[in-house]
Write a structure and sequence with these properties.
extended; mainly alpha; 2 helices
Length: 86
């Protein structure tokens, strides 16, 4: 297992065989596409935001914009049986 905060480093780890990485398709360089597999709609990801200091005004506006959207969010108790959670 390896932990990193950088998508590019996590992709390198996965390509080198150090675990599995879930990433947006546009984050995978074309030369690595043969290593990538699409995942189905049975995968859910919890979104969490954390900051050590108060958010900037632009970060607050971004947060407000995201929380005002009607996203296809699923409550934990409503997840189907057997789903993958990342």
């Amino acid at each position: 297992m390896a932990r990193t905060g950088q998508v590019s480093a996590a992709l390198v780890f996965a390509v080198e065989g150090i675990g599995v990485k879930v990433a947006p398709e546009n984050a995978v360089p074309l030369r690595w596409s043969r290593h990538a597999r699409r995942i189905g709609s049975d995968c859910f990801r919890e979104l969490v935001v954390f900051s050590r200091k108060p958010p900037s005004p632009s970060a607050e506006r971004y947060r407000d914009m995201l929380t005002s959207l009607e996203l296809p969010l699923t409550a934990e108790q409503d997840l189907p049986d057997g789903v993958l959670r990342f």
